[in-house]
């Protein structure tokens, strides 16, 4: 029986010679057919497919109220559709996340990537909603009424589905490296449900899209695809300004994989050129210079660095505040130790294991460079976040400014799983439970906005507040789904162990 493989690894799709193309027939129909079969195979045969389907189902079923942040991206898309302009002068009152330039015009203060990437689909949705409406006022009323549904649709197609795809692709690469099946399942759970990016996956904040592109960048580096690595990293920066800080860990990873040699480096830069040019053009048009970010003209409400202090991008101090650093690491409000303790466990286990040689060469090499990239990237983002008084991310359900790097740590679980004692493996599971509980509570409440208070306590109280019926129903559905997927995973791991060890 032929084994289909998805494009990133498929000679049938991305690496055909002319002879091979002719053998498959003329035109692109056969290539498209191969791609469809490869995608189907990935979603049907992946060892973690049950977690993937559950992740898709949850994000399809629940629509969140997401506040001013996604509204800022929506205002930009509405202005493009209605006024054919990037100015949101007619819509800025829908959000507090705006920038006002000296000429009095308003723009979204968010990185432009999610709005620009989502705009083609938004335009189709907007046309279907307003194409026959005669006046602007009526069109805008309709747009406001359907905003949350349209943003949810954008999130599903530009974040949820691509994130599912890249997760399955990474799990397949880990499987090739010999990662145990149990480790693959735990890593998949951490990727799909156990980190801050997953909490924002079906809202249009941009952090989950950036996290998805960072994972695609890591996959491309692993496969030594320089052009794609540059392309995906450029897209990540377009979605989250702070991801430019990952350039140092990325450069080290590129050097580790031999991608800084002349031809590979040229390919990497060529891949990043497209997003880079779009990024530069957008900021030139809106803010007068390719290197001037929206933060220079941000709503004064968000300027909290005194004018006599040196600040990066107008909002970040050079040195972090110790009290914020402590809150990011272990406070019950947004601390990593409370929202995703498994991340710290994975980092400690990796640092211990990374020098050992009790594994195959390629698994050991991959662990080293992925550990360097993941740990250094997260450290840089923690430093950045601690330099910002708004470290809590506008009072949301986790340390969202770290969201683009946290999923990387899930890969460390699979890469270290076979080289750690059984009690550490159990610790991975135990420390994932609070993250899963937070995920269940957030989706039960359908709200990513939370005050600066202990998150688990806030969402627990909100779930059981007045008229808890719908929230408890959603909680029950998610927990039943997770129980079903966990049972299937247990069966799969048990059968795999029996096949490997044989009868006694």
Can you give me a brief rundown of this structure?
With 504 residues, the protein is an all-alpha fold. It has helices at residues 18-23, 29-45, 49-61, 68-83, 113-130, 136-145, 147-176, 181-193, 196-199, 207-222, 226-239, 247-256, 262-287, 322-330, 336-339, 341-353, 361-386, 408-416, 422-445, 455-463, 469-501, and strands at residues 98-100, 106-108, 311-312, 316-317.
Describe the structure.
This protein is mainly α and 504 residues long. It has 2 domains: 68-148, no CATH class; 149-493, no CATH class. 63% of the residues lie in helices and 2% in strands. It has helices at residues 18-23, 29-45, 49-61, 68-83, 113-130, 136-145, 147-176, 181-193, 196-199, 207-222, 226-239, 247-256, 262-287, 322-330, 336-339, 341-353, 361-386, 408-416, 422-445, 455-463, 469-501, and strands at 98-100, 106-108, 311-312, 316-317. A hairpin with a 5-residue loop joins strand 1 and strand 2 (106-108). Helix 4 crosses helix 5 and helix 11 runs parallel beside helix 13 (262-287). The longest helix is centred in the last third of the chain and has 33 residues, at 469-501. The model is unreliable at 1-28 (pLDDT under 50).
